[in-house]
Amino acid sequence: MSVAASEEYPLVPVEVSDEEWCAWANTLPFAIGFDVRCLRLVDGAGEFVAGSSPIPVNPNGAVHGGVVAAAVDHALGVTCVRAVKAGDGIATASLTIDYYQPCELPMRLSVSVRRSGRSVVFAQVRVTDTDGELRAEASGVMSVRRSREARRALEYSRGPNR
């Protein structure tokens, strides 16, 4: 898989197939730590499954709402970074989740980019169970970080000793 040669986001794929985008998503630390696997990633849409929780489920068998929110944010980020110009990054600007029923494992997350512009990307996520029953819905706004802003954010995240 080829990756961006820029120092802004050295791991974000550039000019690769849908399968390679999905493979990249599955190598991200969050995907591994939270067991959120990318099943399909195309321009404007993504399908993910969360197979386990990094913390025990609630006594009623439900996944903690914060874990659901984190998985949703990850799926949004992976799908939305595909919708911006190569070299640009994204950051969550707003995330709203409506929980209709307790979420149980495995959870399926279906992301749809609704609108992508120069400064923001709007997307929606449906969280369903294995039978396709809707458990939660989310909407997110991702702020586009132009290449220069992305480089500064990356340098800041590395800190003085990294």
Automatic annotation (TrEMBL):
Gene3D superfamilies: Hotdog Thioesterase. The keyword Coiled coil does not apply. Coiled coil: none annotated. Residues 60-134 form the Thioesterase domain. GO terms for molecular function: hydrolase activity. Keywords: Hydrolase. It comes from the Bacteria. InterPro entries: HotDog_dom_sf (IPR029069), Thioestr_dom (IPR006683). It holds the Pfam family 4HBT. The keyword Transferase does not apply. Transmembrane segments: none annotated. Its EC number is 3.1.2.-. This is PaaI family thioesterase. It comes from Streptomyces chlorus.
